Amino acid sequence: MLRCKIPTPRLRSLHSQSRSVHLGYLPNSRSPIVPTLSFFNSVTGSDEKIPTFRVLDGVGKPVDGAEVPELDEAFARKLYENMQLLPTLDTVLYNVQRQGKTSFHYGEEATIIGSAAALEPDDDIVDLIALLFFPIAGQYREMGVILWRGYGLDAIMAQCFGNMDDTAGKGRQMPVHIGSPKYHFHTISSPLATQIPQAAGVGYALRRSPDRRSRSIAACYFGEGAASEGDFHAGLLLASTIPSPTLFIARNNGFAISTPSSEQYYGDGIASRGPGYGIDTIRVDGNDILAVLVAVREARKRTLKQGRAVLVEAMSYRVGHHSTSDDSFAYRQRSEVEDRKRVDNPIARFRLFMESRGWWSVTEEEELKARLKGDVMKALKRAESLPRCELGEMFKDVYGGEEPWNITEQRGELTRLIKKYGPVWEPWKKELAKFKNGGKDLTQSAS
Ligand SMILES: Cc1ncc(C[n+]2csc(CCOP(=O)(O)OP(=O)(O)O)c2C)c(N)n1
Ligand SMILES: [Mg+2]
């Protein structure tokens, strides 16, 4: 098991000027009165940008002064294998999408796997209460988090293909819009940033629950682009004013589709906003898995101990296109992407670190890649061969409690239509054949 020896990071003061000579404090406030006219535009107290916490350098060596967390070989291998799984999965799904079968988004290996490992389910034990409060609220690039938790490739593929094994979504969500009560993963929703205030609400609910108060936090992932939404501000304000143990993980990968971060904000990234809400904040190198692990683990402890929100900004660079519908070379240089793939590559850095400890070799690398590709292909083939859920599942558990009239009406209408056209109209025949029992659950049901 890994233990972190890094001392608790201190928060930097808002601006050092306030610590110089002052004339007392404003009434009912800790704001020092100063006689100098001076504006500030930095949360570090100088003209510096907020620093970025790093453990490993670009070639996997510990940076001067950094303490490498205690890490055993088995755990390091697990981290590495999970990182390698993400590009393997991406490549296979990319090709599948090109055949028109599904669509997907790229992942960010070190940020996703490092933070998932730091959010081990020891604070999220699977129980009935957990079924009510799904402690991870993601955006869409966090497939690696749920894989880390044991969700499995078959389940990922089932969701992407919307087949009968997609037990939570029943094929009703778009690909990669995963959700799982069992793995405490709130269903991804397409409108950006909705998960942020929801996560603050989940955190608050956890705090109000006597069973979970002392061991649970809600973790919320979002991109720097999503942080431009009003919901970001609503969520952080909510989590700070009505204190809730909510850990916000901002993945700053430099782009919101084609909009570079330089056009998304004028201030110092997302981290600078944390102190505005009174939220403990740290910026971390999102391509350094050990830095992410240490920072998120510390952030998690802080969130739990204080019962308050914490913000982590993980700095990265999206080397892939935004999604399969995007061609990023229309708005950025190919050479820039190639450079960023080489410099600070999260997987290569950690592999070099593993090699320096004698934990990894070229042969193992080849074996791992072959094994992962085999696993992904097997899951893909299985998913392709399975039918969709029964057609009638579409109308079930849409809302809790009694079925509302509109759902009943819609089911009735579809049933009438497939009775009339299903047996005779070729496109419908073909479509119905994709469902388990070919729609008979509706046409042969008593109602
Ligand atoms: C409210 C809303 N506006 C716009 C979109 C379209 N959209 C989908 S992803 C995306 C970019 C998000 O960027 P970021 O949050 O940085 O996440 P990243 O894709 O970089 O991980 C946009 C604009 C959306 N889904 N929802
Ligand atoms: Mg982004």
UniProtKB/TrEMBL annotation:
Cofactor(s) needed by this chain: thiamine diphosphate
Domain of life, source organism: Eukaryota
Catalytic activity: N(6)-[(R)-lipoyl]-L-lysyl-[protein] + 3-methyl-2-oxobutanoate + H(+) = N(6)-[(R)-S(8)-2-methylpropanoyldihydrolipoyl]-L-lysyl-[protein] + CO2
Primary enzyme class: oxidoreductase
Ranges where the Dehydrogenase E1 component domain occurs: 82-387
GO biological process per UniProt: branched-chain amino acid catabolic process
Enzyme Commission number: 1.2.4.4
A GO MF term: branched-chain 2-oxo acid dehydrogenase activity
Keywords: Oxidoreductase, Thiamine pyrophosphate
Coiled-coil region list: none
CDD domains in the record: TPP_E1_PDC_ADC_BCADC (cd02000)
Annotated signal peptide: none
Key word Metal-binding present: no
Pfam family, one: E1_dh
Family that this chain belongs to: Belongs to the BCKDHA family.
Described function: The branched-chain alpha-keto dehydrogenase complex catalyzes the overall conversion of alpha-keto acids to acyl-CoA and CO(2). It contains multiple copies of three enzymatic components: branched-chain alpha-keto acid decarboxylase (E1), lipoamide acyltransferase (E2) and lipoamide dehydrogenase (E3).
Name assigned to this protein: 2-oxoisovalerate dehydrogenase subunit alpha
Native source organism of the sequence: Favolaschia claudopus
